From TrEMBL:
<protein>
    <submittedName>
        <fullName>Precorrin-8X methylmutase</fullName>
    </submittedName>
</protein>
<dbReference type="GO" id="GO:0016993">
    <property type="term" value="F:precorrin-8X methylmutase activity"/>
</dbReference>
<dbReference type="Pfam" id="PF02570">
    <property type="entry name" value="CbiC"/>
</dbReference>
<dbReference type="InterPro" id="IPR036588">
    <property type="entry name" value="CobH/CbiC_sf"/>
</dbReference>
<comment type="similarity">
    <text>Belongs to the CobH/CbiC family.</text>
</comment>
<comment type="pathway">
    <text>Cofactor biosynthesis; adenosylcobalamin biosynthesis.</text>
</comment>
<keyword id="KW-0169">Cobalamin biosynthesis</keyword>
<dbReference type="GO" id="GO:0009236">
    <property type="term" value="P:cobalamin biosynthetic process"/>
</dbReference>
<dbReference type="InterPro" id="IPR003722">
    <property type="entry name" value="Cbl_synth_CobH/CbiC"/>
</dbReference>
<feature type="domain" description="Cobalamin biosynthesis precorrin-8X methylmutase CobH/CbiC">
    <location>
        <begin position="5"/>
        <end position="199"/>
    </location>
</feature>
<keyword id="KW-0413">Isomerase</keyword>
Amino acid sequence: MRPQDIEKRSFAIITAELGERTFPDGESEVVKRVIHTTADFDYADSLAFSPGAVGQAREALASGATVVTDTNMALAGVNKGALQALGGRAVCYMADGAVARAAGARGVTRAAVSMEYAALLDGPLIFAVGNAPTALIRLHELIAEGAVSPALVIGVPVGFVNVVEAKELFIGGQTPYIIARGRKGGSNVAAAIVNALLYQLIEREGF
């Protein structure tokens, strides 16, 4: 089978197995792409969307948003061609020497410091955190301090220490979010969500 046929068949299987489950406009594509990436149907229940998050994300992407990731793995997974077609870009500061030095001097994680560097960027920002809860915690602090106002926070770190608590910081807040509640997530999930938003924007709006 051709790659595109395999993907089409996979999404047909996902739709069939979801049965009569329905999701608000735009959220279905996100849920299905995450399931496609992970083969885990738990995400149909654990993905939490703030009201209007998908629409706000599409608007930001159409305006040339910068996608900030907390890992180079997530950065690698984002479809750069689709993002660049919209005038956007993707960045990750985890391997930046200045970030590493600052983190070492302060005794904090590079992930936390990378959020501080990203907060200085101009234009609409979408944060895609798939690994480090410390990145999500520091981002929440920066938002509270008024240092940054993200167009969307994708919070899907995976693990056991401070993961659930970091995600719950955003639930019910004013910042638009897509959060994977619980312990599950990962860089691949973060990239999948970004790509789902990109693809539906391109397909629906003809970019």
